[in-house]
Write a structure and sequence with these properties.
Blueprint (H helix, E strand, L loop, with lengths): L10 H21 L2 H6 L9 H25 L4 H20 L13 H15 L2 H24 L5 H69 L1 H9 L8 H19 L9 H14 L3 E7 L7 H21 L4 E9 L2 E8 L15 H9 L5 E6 L5 E7 L2
Parallel strand pairs: 1-2
Antiparallel strand pairs: 2-3, 3-5, 4-5
Helix pairs in contact: 1-3, 1-5, 1-7, 3-4, 4-5, 4-6, 5-6, 5-7, 6-7, 7-8, 10-11, 11-12
Length: 395
């Protein structure tokens, strides 16, 4: 069965709508064949002008209603098409009876093109078997309607029979052609929808893989800033593992690892100030003197924002310890309305920010976490003049 549902936004839905629109345009063109009859005085060839004009107007009204409903619903139902075929058959039988012998098979018989439109509509939108039966019924109604004029009159029989044969041929030929074209269009639309679905699934897989990679990267950065940094300091002999403050730091790192594995390492509401103070303590335990000043910080921050600010602060202090060749830094965290401004300053060797490429470290951390979380960042540095990192987040 040829489905005529056109709901949705895929290629198949657009193809179905296109078929409805094309069928409507064709029907309008076919019905316009009756205009020459009116404009050229062809009504004199009919026995009842009122009847023939009324039949033509009824066909126009019906076609307008039919295609208006189909376009609004964006689908074609079997019942509407069967009514259209039945009306076409009725007009094919009735209209020739109003016509004198000279117009029985001539251009004045406007109902023939309209009937072809009904056949095309059926072949496109309803099951093939029913459409074939409807096509044969309409063609039979056409032959039945003009049979008396062709056989039982003194009109030139060869010319009349030739016109009838040509019209029947066109009815059957257009029926087959429309079915083939609609079938090909629907097959192409299905292929497009399948390709689109494959592309969407591929993008989803890429997004999932990217999310996993980002999560692994985030976890690496977190471990790099905490546990790995502590272990590296101890391994290089920079810390005495027997010192109470180092043992306390290791305990906090162990708690952090357990929280990370259990999913409980996120920063909760109201924990930002304490967590920021914890970052300072950790860095001091690792040998970096941090002169910190906190003022009017919000009591609550969104967890993602708090994690971003803490990560950026930790990374900025890490870079002081690793690259600035000094053992002192200044940290200022100030609340600005509902936002937060964090500034980390050192008087170390500095660097050229423009010369720093991708990879881990200060620039990557700021770009990857601060900007994506809705914050802004400014890194000011030059060789020999230290570095200033300023992170601002506002809701």
């Amino acid at each position: 069965m040829q489905s005529s549902a056109t709901t949705g936004n895929g290629a198949q839905a657009r193809a179905e709508l296109l078929l409805i629109q094309a069928s409507g345009a064709l029907r309008a063109l076919q019905l316009s064949v009756g205009l020459p009859v009116l404009l050229s005085g062809g009504l004199d060839d009919f026995r009842s002008i009122t009847a023939v004009v009324g039949s033509h107007l009824s066909a126009v009204v019906w076609s307008t209603v039919l295609f208006t409903v189909m376009l609004r619903r964006r689908r074609v139902t079997l019942e509407w098409v069967l009514v259209d075929l039945a009306l076409a058959a009725i007009w094919l039988i009735a209209v020739p009876q109003m016509c004198v012998t000279s117009c029985a098979s001539g251009w004045q018989l406007w109902v023939v093109p309209s009937a072809m439109g009904s056949i095309i509509l059926a072949m496109i939108f309803i099951p093939f078997g029913i459409a074939v039966v409807g096509t044969l019924a309409v063609a039979g109604a056409y032959v039945l309607g003009i049979w008396e004029h062709v056989v039982r009159t003194r009109a030139p029989a060869p010319d009349a029979l030739g016109s009838v044969a040509v019209n029947v041929f066109f009815m059957l030929g257009f029926a087959l052609l429309s079915w083939v074209c609609a079938r090909m269009l629907r097959a192409s639309a299905r292929q497009v929808d399948l390709a689109t679905a494959d592309a969407i699934e591929a993008r989803a897989r890429e997004a999932t893989a990217r999310a996993r990679y980002d999560e692994r990267t985030r976890q690496y950065d977190v471990l790099h800033h905490t546990v790995l940094s502590t272990l590296s300091k101890i391994a290089r002999g920079g810390l005495d593992h027997r010192a109470d403050e180092v043992r306390a730091l290791c305990t906090r790192d162990a708690d952090f690892l357990r929280g990370l594995m259990s999913g409980a390492a996120d920063i909760g509401p109201g924990d930002f100030v304490g967590a920021l103070a914890g970052v300072v303590r950790d860095k001091q335990a690792l040998g970096l003197r941090v002169n910190s000043q906190f003022h009017a910080l919000p009591t609550e921050l969104p967890p993602a924002v708090a994690a971003m600010l803490l990560g950026a602060t930790r990374e900025a202090l890490n870079n002081v310890a690793k690259h600035a060749e000094v053992d002192e830094a200044w940290l200022t965290a100030v609340g600005e309305g509902d936002g937060v401004r964090v500034v980390v300053v050192d008087r170390g060797v500095g660097f050229e920010p423009e010369a720093v490429t991708g990879g881990r470290g200060l620039i990557r951390e700021l770009r990857h976490r601060v900007i994506e979380t809705g914050g802004t960042v400014d890194v000011t540095s030059s060789p020999g003049h230290g570095t200033v990192v300023e992170v601002l987040w506002t809701p």
